[in-house]
Each structure stands twice: as structure tokens, then as C-alpha cells.
Design goal:
Elements lengths: L8 H20 L13 H25 L3 H28 L10 H32 L3 H29 L4
Helix pairs in contact: 1-4, 2-3, 2-5, 4-5
């Protein structure tokens, strides 16, 4: 396959900044009124489901590339990006309309929750440019660069998608 000369870096940087700034803005903007009759509580469940699918697709992609099934690896990565994009749209919609939910537990589990939440948030911001850069290098056939960064991207993205589900399960009783 021929290596592409397309300059993807401005797209990676632009999308990374836009996505992370949009998520940050949701902390400071007032909530908008949800559509009448729409139960916002379905969105966190949907987000957890999308994170679960992302996790499974990433595991599948990892397994497939280790077996040298490049075409199927790509398909699973496309699926992971699709479920991640659906998650992001739903996440942004929910946090634009709903107030923040506080964790109500106590004891040692409280510390576990906040550790998982903090690492999830920080790595979720980091995984945006990492995943986009890894993806761009893969589809432009810059495979040496793709492999080098994918060794970091895959475990971090797996962690973020898994802890997204874990955070949901831990905070679910307080919605």
C-alpha cells in the first residue's frame, strides 16, 4: 500500500482542541432545558453501553492485529471510533442539559471512586489526540509511526473505556 502525503496533523490538533474545550465549557455553561418528556437518565446508561462496546471493539482490534488480520483490525477500530463518537454526542447532550451528579457513597469506596474518576477524566482528555493521531497514521499507511504510538494508545483507550463504565456503575445509585 502506498503511504499518503495528506497532512493530518492540523485535523488532529483542531479536533483534539475542539472536543476537549467543548467538554470543559460544559462545566461553566448553564444547563439548557431538555426536550419535554425526555428522561435524561437514559443517557448515562447509553454512554456506559457505548463505552462497553468501545472496550469490546478495542479488545477485538487488538486480538485481530496480533493475529495479523489487518482488514478486520481496521473494521474493529472503525467500530470503536463509531461507538466513541456516539458516546461523545450523548455525553455532551447529557451534560448540556443535566446538573452534575455527586457521588453519595462513603468509606474506602469513595476514595476508589474519586481515583478512578480522576484518572478517567485526565486520560480521556489525553486519549483524544492520541487516538486521532494513531488512527490517522494507520489510514495513511505510516505503519511504523502507527505501531509506535498504538502501543501507548491501545492500553490507555482500553482503560478510559473500561473506567467510563466503572464510573457509571459506581455513581448510578445517585442519579
Amino acid at each position: 500500500m502506498k503511504t499518503s502525503t495528506f497532512n493530518y496533523v492540523p485535523w488532529v490538533v483542531g479536533l483534539s482542541i475542539a472536543i476537549n474545550v467543548l467538554v470543559l465549557l460544559l462545566l461553566f455553561l448553564p444547563n439548557i432545558d431538555p426536550v419535554a418528556g425526555f428522561d435524561l437518565k437514559v443517557l448515562p446508561l447509553f454512554n456506559a453501553i457505548m463505552n462497553s462496546f468501545t472496550f469490546v471493539f478495542l479488545l477485538g482490534a487488538l486480538f485481530l492485529i496480533l493475529k495479523k488480520y489487518v482488514l478486520w483490525h481496521r473494521r474493529f477500530i472503525y467500530a470503536a471510533f463509531t461507538t466513541t463518537a456516539l458516546f461523545l454526542v450523548s455525553y455532551l447532550a447529557y451534560h448540556a442539559m443535566a446538573p452534575s451528579t455527586s457521588y453519595g457513597g462513603d468509606g474506602p469506596l469513595r476514595y476508589v471512586y474519586y481515583f478512578v474518576l480522576l484518572t478517567h477524566i485526565v486520560l480521556a482528555a489525553v486519549i483524544v489526540p492520541l487516538s486521532l493521531l494513531t488512527f490517522a497514521r494507520g489510514i495513511t499507511n505510516k505503519l511504523d509511526k502507527h505501531r509506535r504510538i498504538a502501543r501507548w494508545t491501545m492500553p490507555l483507550w482500553l482503560y478510559v473505556s473500561f473506567t467510563g463504565v466503572l464510573v457509571y456503575l459506581m455513581i448510578k445509585p445517585y442519579y
